[in-house]
Design a protein that fits this description.
Helix content: 25-40%
Shape: elongated
Largest sheet: 6 strands, mixed
Strand order of the largest sheet: 3-4-2-1-12-11
Number of helices: 12
Number of strands: 12
Radius of gyration: 32 Å
Distance between the termini: 115 Å
Strand content: 15-25%
Order of helices and strands: HHHHHHEHEHHEEEEEHEHEHEEE
């Protein structure tokens, strides 16, 4: 009985000590709103990191789709912005680092690295222009007797571009061959009134619908002119042969179908028709115009094949974004205007120039046509 009493006393004493200790400890309090805000922000940044990383991967992967799948609705538009997804990937990587989302970071790194691998050649040239080419186009007037030429292509937006500014650009840049797209009879008259024939007196213009056409203007005669060199379903693509320092070069003014609703398949078809020009080995070609496709589009790369080369890409100039120029708040994000040269040619001094009245910018390139 004494032992039980003693045990009860010890238990009571221990209970009092436990209660006292519990009272002495501060009670757990719920997090305040101020304390929860960083946690919510952390989770939100992690969510954005995952979303941006997946979008970057998806958009980048679209570039690798075969040509037949790239004609699916809206896919061409997505692919035209491929280089810009590197920026989205970098943002995703930064958010992933801040929010400690390892998987999102790895996805973003993979997408950016793959995109960078594709875009890197635009910034490094393995065949730069010789110094003689730079010297040849530096004179006050164009020299048509050598193998070097300053060329220009420009979509004049249904004849709405400023004709006077075009002539001034031709003069200032000493352009020897000019390709224009979406011309009208009224625009051609304005171009003549602005003095284009003083610098480029020879021309070949054609139209498949009698309203909008494409044309070539040259400082030297255009031999063997035709209304449509390509037999294209998109538009007449006129051509003419220019003598450049004893080299006969066949120039073509190009305008393919735009990738818009209802014309996705026709867009690819018009590029496939250009691809047939690889078998025309009797001439050496330079294609200039609005291809409505970037180098990231598989149908455009298939047109190039192993014979033709995008001048901007082989020059190491970097991106030549040329569309759109008439949408406030939206930068030029797509390089759909090209100068495409035949094998053995080199190119450089690429330049994009905005001219009022059009939704495109003009693209200027210096070409060396001598066989390398």
């Amino acid at each position: 009985m004494a032992r039980a009493t003693s045990a009860n006393k010890r238990n009571a004493y221990c209970g009092k000590r436990t209660a006292a200790a519990a009272k002495s400890r501060p009670s757990a309090k719920p997090y305040t709103k101020e304390q929860l805000k960083p946690h919510k922000k952390h989770r939100f940044l992690g969510f954005l990191a995952c979303v941006f990383a997946l979008l970057t991967l998806f958009a980048t992967a679209a570039r690798a789709l075969p040509a037949d799948l790239q004609e699916l609705p809206y896919v061409p538009i997505l692919i035209s912005a491929t280089p810009w997804f590197m920026l989205l990937g970098l943002i995703a990587l930064l958010l992933a680092i801040v929010s400690r989302k390892i998987l999102a970071a790895l996805i973003a790194i993979a997408a950016v690295a793959l995109n960078g691998y594709w875009q890197y050649p635009f910034f490094y040239s393995t065949t730069p222009l010789p110094q003689a080419a730079h010297n040849a186009v530096a004179y006050n007037e164009a020299n048509t007797s050598d193998a070097f030429a300053r060329v220009m292509t420009f979509n004049v937006y249904k004849g709405q571009a400023d004709a006077q500014s075009i002539v001034e650009t031709v003069r200032d840049q000493r352009v020897e061959v000019l390709a224009l797209q979406e011309t009208t009879d009224g625009f051609v008259k304005k171009l003549k009134d602005a003095g284009i024939e003083r610098y480029l007196p020879y021309s070949n213009i054609s139209s498949s619908d009698g309203v909008y056409g494409n044309g070539l203007w040259s400082a030297t005669p255009l031999a063997q002119p035709v209304d449509d060199e390509v037999n294209s379903s998109a538009s007449f693509m006129p051509a003419g042969t220019v003598d450049m320092g004893g080299n006969s070069i066949r120039f073509v003014s190009v305008h393919t179908t735009a990738p818009v609703p209802g014309y996705w398949r026709q867009w690819k078809r018009s590029l496939d028709e250009l691809g047939l020009m690889q078998s025309h080995t009797d001439n050496r070609y330079i294609f200039m115009g609005d291809f409505n496709a970037t180098y990231d589009h598989a149908p455009f790369r298939e047109f190039l094949g192993t014979r033709f080369y995008d001048a901007a890409r082989i020059s190491g100039h970097g991106f030549t974004f040329s569309w759109p120029t008439n949408r406030p708040g939206l930068p030029m994000f797509a390089g759909i205007d090209h100068v495409v040269v035949d094998q053995g040619m080199t190119a450089g001094q690429c330049k994009v120039v905005k001219i009022a009245g059009s939704d495109h910018a003009a693209l200027l390139v210096t070409v060396d046509v001598m066989q390398s």
